[in-house]
Amino acid sequence: MPSLFGYEVESDLPLRRLNQAPGTRGRLVVETTTERLFDPTEPAHTVRFPGGQLFMATAERDGGCVVHVPPTATFMLRTGDPLRIAVKPDKDDSGLLEHRFVSAAACMLLSMCGDVVLHASAVESGGRAVVFCGKTGRGKSTLARALGGLGHPVLSEDGIAISISGQDPTAFPGARGIRIRGTDGSRGAKLVPDPGPAEPAPSPLATLVVLGERGPALSTEMLEPPRALALLTSELVHTGGRESIATAFGGLAKLLHSVPAVAVSLPDDLTALPNAAKKVLDTLPDRG
Prior knowledge:
By secondary structure, the protein is an alpha+beta fold. It folds into two domains: about 5-115, no CATH class; about 120-285, Phosphoenolpyruvate Carboxykinase, domain 3 (Alpha-Beta Complex), CATH 3.90.228. The protein contains five helices and 19 strands. The strands form three sheets. Strands 9, 10, 11, 12, 13, 14, 17, 18 and 19 form a nine-stranded mixed sheet that branches. It has an eight-stranded mixed sheet with strand order 1-2-3-8-7-6-5-4, covered by helices on one side. The chain has a two-stranded antiparallel ribbon with strand order 15-16. Strand 5 (about 55-60) and strand 6 form a beta hairpin. Helix 3 packs antiparallel against helix 4. The radius of gyration is 18 Å and the shape is globular. It starts with a strand and ends in a 5-residue tail after the last helix.
């Protein structure tokens, strides 16, 4: 049975970007529904685009959480055994629907389960995971694609789930493929196949990389845990509720006590990116 973030997925919604390796963490059941899941008049936590347009609304309800991502879909998330996601599609765009399912619904559900979940890309290097966080446009997906082309399996390109329940924090593979935005400033993106040599396995976490604004040349700087915590908090995935925010923040603080963080500024010159990507891995702390 295919898997996502370490969970075997049983779905009546067509999902084409799952991992072929079986999951080891439990089951995730996905069911489509025609039921109305979100009432726009109910209180909700909202995330908006810079122009004010609604990107996402979340509402904790009945022990679960509703995630409304207009105009694509609404999801109802429930923890337990198995994990469950009900999906009400609102737009006939299967590619965007699966992207929202993975990056918004599944990521948020795993945050509800206690994982540290970040808006990030990640690759495997030397048997360990290197995670890249940063604002949109800083190069998360581009960096993952460049490193995949250099032979590093891509764990995820838009959201990574990190289990902190064991001795070693472990990053679990997300959806296959990389969504690359165009250079014309539009929000649309195209899906390209994984450039890495193979489907990755769950990987112990080596380093968290915080991508800053691009500059004339590659630069790196080790971050002390308090500063890393401040920079990474905005990249946390949570429901928006007070308890959810506190749990996510506490998990990240715990993670930063055992995993180093590095600030990286990539070069503006995209033709220099492959060489810069290799140098990023070479300059990170020992990942053994």
